Amino acid sequence: MKIIACIKQVPDSEAKVKAEGGQVSWGDAPLVINPFDEYAVEGALQQKEALGGTVTALCVGGESAKDALKHALAMGADDAVLVSDAALNDLDTVGAARVLAAAINKIGGADMVIFGRQTLDNGAGLTPAQTARIIGWPMLGLAGQIKVDGGSVTVERVLEEGRQTVSAKMPVVLSVVQSIGEPRYPSFMGIRKASKATIPIWSLADLSTAAPAPVITRAELMNPPAQEKEVEMITGDSPAEIADKLADKILAEKVL
Amino acid sequence: MKTFVYIDHFKGEVQPASWEAIGLAKKYGTALALVFGADTDEISKAAFEYGADEVIVVDDAALTDYRAEPYASTLSALASSSTPDLILFPTTARTRELAAMSAVDLSTGVLTDLTGFEMNGDQMVATRPIYEGKLLEKTVCSGKPVMATIRGRVFPKPAREAGKTGTLTKGEAKTEALSTVAGYSASESAVNLGDAAVIVSGGRGVSNNPALTPPAGMDEKQAEVWRAQQGFALITDLATLLGGAVGASRAAVDGGYITYAHQVGQTGKVVTPDLYIACGISGAIQHLVGMRNAKLIVAINKDADAPVFKQARYGVVGDLFAIVPALTEAMKKKMGK
Ligand SMILES: Cc1cc2nc3c(=O)[nH]c(=O)nc-3n(C[C@H](O)[C@H](O)[C@H](O)COP(=O)(O)OP(=O)(O)OC[C@H]3O[C@@H](n4cnc5c(N)ncnc54)[C@H](O)[C@@H]3O)c2cc1C
Ligand SMILES: Nc1ncnc2c1ncn2[C@@H]1O[C@H](COP(=O)(O)O)[C@@H](O)[C@H]1O
Q1: What is the pLDDT of residues B234-281, one digit of tens each?
Q2: Is the bond into A171 cis (omega within 30 degrees of 0)?
Q3: pTM check: above 0.90
Q4: Which residue of B100, B193, B329 is in closest CB contact with A129?
Q5: What is the ipTM of this complex?
Q6: Which of A147, B50, B100, B137 gets the most CB atoms within 10 Å of its CB?
Q7: Residue numbers in A near B274 (CB within 8 A)
Q8: Helical ranges in chain A per DSSP H
Q9: Which A residues, 87 through 126, put their C-beta within 8 Å of a C-beta on chain B?
């Protein structure tokens, strides 16, 4: 079983992200592997453990994204590839999908490509299905559980309305959600291995492809309006008295 | 301007933000509602009643179960032949996939989860939250048609006019599929947090009631889950009274107190109810990013220093096992129920 896990590097979710001079600033907060993509790596490792094979972590990003790939290696991925090129600064999701598709082809022979649900920074949740469409493989999205049986994969999709069981023949593209299981912590051995690993960097020339022109562009970046109201604490001598006052406050807000 | 509005439904239940999308489309011109599936008469009827000028229905047994590939191919073919300026969708798990794939077919792009939409001359400008809502961006799409998914409960829902009709046209289904649907279980008590006007949520605190004695024979973990279920019963009572849904923090989901479908936050759902009541939730950033756009936030927590109070309009420092049932009683009386 040859599995590719697609991961991105993003500012840590604890970071105080602000718009400064039209640019996104996250101060000195660390860049980390996109939290949703840790589930992708976890899902890939679970399949490797069940069936044997290898897991390759794949990322399109700047040089710094090597650290995110090293995190995947430390979790247990066998190898990693970074696609990095100065021409890739303004990628939209279709563009990212085109580059990922080219890299998946160059890696070759994959049975499964696993994605996270969405990125923390852009939050589009489009790249997995776009990649599937470009390479022409079935898309099994939002999997909470993955089972392989012979040449086909069955997943339980976690939808708003419940769980749906869907199957397709390999090779397939998957995206996974939290129900797949908590991402494992990097082991001591894993961290050592990752720190020594050399991660190949592929340019667009290596992929024999040009930089996709972005269709979606940002016109303006804004900080959300500040919250103007302070919290008002409701107190009283008994739960009933507090509840009575709180109920009046809620009703006075006319939100019901 | 000509807009396709994709009516997203699952087993006949329409995602209400589809109607909100019709309202948005009508503001700028004509709205052509797209209804895909099998036995869709009721949905088409509703689409007219919510203001669609035209309904294009693709009713085909092969489309009974939603699957991304045939739905995307059907949409792409319709868009190629009738060239809308804009295709709107409610933001759901399905539409993110469907729009994503169709955008590849049509060499355009998708603007997801919009909270704002305006015209700047001829150009459509969308506002959307990024970085978990820590920032907002205005984005434009240079492809045609522009594709956009709108966040639920942000744009006004048009009034429903019973009996209203319009032109119904039939479209052709593209049926080649790459996957098969084996089944569906609603066991995970269908929760639609995205569309709820009221959400009452519980966190790890719902298991913290030492006064409750679990049935004999339970180990410590089972007793904890049992306690949490008593806590969630109180939360459910309040939610039901207010016509709302039950939410949860990740700690409650990870603890096995309630299913993942209820989870609010970064790895769960981002919600925008009118009223959000957080009970026994500390207010970690990953939870706050999922609920901070609620119109009114109320927090009930034992700990006066819990960060959730910084996000709330009203706060109560107290035991949820006492406050929540008292609040249910008080609301019942005042609402005359
Ligand atoms: C990558 C990542 C993604 C995450 N995604 C999410 C997400 O989507 N959603 C999410 O919620 N979290 C998410 N988290 C987890 C988040 O960081 C917190 O751990 C989680 O939100 C804590 O849940 P909690 O508030 O219920 O529990 P705790 O932080 O343990 O808080 C419990 C609270 O209950 C109060 N309490 C206890 N007993 C009572 C009582 N009887 N009455 C009243 N109050 C009481 C306590 O004072 C405390 O404040 C994520 C974390 C990571 C790292
Ligand atoms: N630059 C990238 N490199 C590798 N994988 C990516 C990249 N961007 C997005 N992905 C994958 O696509 C998923 C969805 O991303 P998005 O569509 O941007 O929300 C992520 O969770 C990743 O698995």
Answers
A1: 999 999 999 999 999 999 999 999 999 899 999 999 999 999 999 999
A2: yes
A3: yes
A4: B100
A5: 0.95
A6: B100
A7: 255-256
A8: 35-51, 66-75, 93-107, 127-135, 188-196, 239-252
A9: 92-94, 97, 117, 120-126
